[in-house]
């Protein structure tokens, strides 16, 4: 005779994980969340959308990529969920949408209840930081397909924006100013190159590099900064033209997505000093500037385009909210490109 447990699936461990994460998930709750006694679905009271004249629902889905492999190597799982939320909600806010709720999905080789609770606790904390609710999720045990200590996670989020307030390239004008919102580090992109550098340069995650104030592993696991509430605050106080979430592809490629074909963004590389972690990776990995530019955020996690006469106000607001911000460049007539001058 065979059982599910014989096949490597522990239903009781899954139930235990759910119990451990309940309090953390509750911390992300919004007033619009409605309890579903069955637990099969997450419910959100759509009557909240009645305050909009023409609400547009926005949706985004993403993962954390191979950064999870570093979390597994360091046996530190309580912040990787913050990375997941940042990747999802900061895509939503680019169009001006307020994140409303998220769901997550974790696939693992073996359900270790405490580890799953730590992962989901990070997702819940990220949702709290983003102002959205974690309304549901799924944990799948895949014995034989994944090693016992392996896992991956993904998530999807939904937001809402007023139709006539939706941001986009059509709002951008010549003489507008490009603002840089500082990243917290590498965020969640480029970790395949990071791991390649670590291997080839024989660098250990517990290693202390002279240019870093903490171990290399601690630096690389710094969670993604979540900008959604800061961007929404900026929208309330200034006439933001567009945002660009700086993820895979780097600064110029992502910023170009928020430009019409009639302008260019001219960026000044001298306007900031890239965080030491990027210099360390470039030097020890012998990575060209071009590859660094198209792989990493280099210290800029989000860009905002605002009218020139509102740049100072925007910088003051964001800096007061704890997000270092500076003038990165300007918008000029062109063909829809973002380049360093």
TrEMBL record:
Every PurM-like C-terminal domain range: 176-336
An annotated Gene Ontology molecular function: ATP binding
Subcellular location: Cytoplasm
Main location: cytoplasm
Catalytic activities: 2-formamido-N(1)-(5-O-phospho-beta-D-ribosyl)acetamidine + ATP = 5-amino-1-(5-phospho-beta-D-ribosyl)imidazole + ADP + phosphate + H(+)
Pathway the protein acts in: Purine metabolism; IMP biosynthesis via de novo pathway; 5-amino-1-(5-phospho-D-ribosyl)imidazole from N(2)-formyl-N(1)-(5-phospho-D-ribosyl)glycinamide: step 2/2
GO biological process: 'de novo' IMP biosynthetic process; adenine biosynthetic process
InterPro entries, per the entry: PurM-like_C_dom, PurM-like_C_sf, PurM-like_N, PurM-like_N_sf, PurM_cligase
The keyword ATP-binding belongs to this UniProt entry's keyword annotation: yes
UniProt keyword terms in alphabetical order: ATP-binding, Cytoplasm, Ligase, Nucleotide-binding, Purine biosynthesis
GO annotations of cellular component type: cytosol
Catalytic class of the enzyme: ligase
Entry's EC annotation: 6.3.3.1
Domain PurM-like N-terminal, first and last residues per copy: 47-161
Entry's family note: Belongs to the AIR synthase family.
Protein name: Phosphoribosylformylglycinamidine cyclo-ligase
Designated gene of the protein: purM
């Amino acid at each position: 005779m065979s059982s599910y447990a014989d096949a490597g699936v522990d239903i009781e461990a899954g139930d235990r994980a759910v119990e451990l994460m309940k309090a953390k998930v509750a911390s992300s709750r919004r007033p619009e969340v409605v309890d579903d006694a069955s637990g099969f679905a997450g419910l959100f009271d759509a009557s909240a959308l009645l305050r909009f004249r023409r609400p547009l629902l926005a949706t985004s889905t993403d993962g954390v990529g191979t950064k999870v492999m570093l979390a597994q190597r360091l046996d530190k799982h309580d912040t990787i969920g913050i990375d997941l939320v940042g990747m999802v909600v900061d895509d939503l806010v680019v169009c001006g949408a307020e994140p409303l709720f998220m769901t997550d999905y974790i696939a693992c080789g073996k359900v270790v209840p405490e580890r799953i609770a730590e992962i989901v606790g990070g997702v819940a904390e990220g949702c709290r930081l983003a102002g959205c609710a974690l309304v549901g999720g799924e944990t799948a045990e895949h014995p034989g397909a994944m090693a016992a200590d392996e896992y991956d996670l993904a998530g999807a989020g939904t937001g809402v924006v007023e139709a006539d307030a939706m941001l986009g390239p059509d709002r951008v004008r010549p003489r507008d100013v490009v603002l840089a919102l500082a990243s917290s580090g590498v965020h969640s992109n480029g970790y395949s190159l990071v791991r390649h550098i670590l291997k080839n340069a024989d660098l250990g995650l517990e290693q202390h590099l002279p240019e870093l104030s903490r171990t290399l592993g601690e630096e690389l696991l710094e969670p993604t900064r979540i900008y959604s509430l800061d961007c929404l605050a900026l929208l309330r106080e200034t006439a933001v033209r567009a945002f660009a979430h700086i993820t895979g592809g780097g600064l110029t490629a992502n910023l170009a997505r928020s430009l019409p074909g009639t302008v260019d963004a001219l960026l000044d590389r001298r306007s900031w000093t890239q965080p030491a972690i990027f210099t360390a990776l470039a030097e020890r990995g012998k990575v060209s500037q071009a590859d660094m530019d198209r792989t990493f955020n280099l210290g800029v996690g989000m860009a905002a385009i605002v009218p020139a006469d509102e740049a100072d106000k925007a910088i003051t607001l964001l800096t007061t909210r704890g997000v270092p911000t500076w003038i990165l460049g300007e918008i000029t007539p062109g063909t829809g490109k973002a380049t360093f001058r």
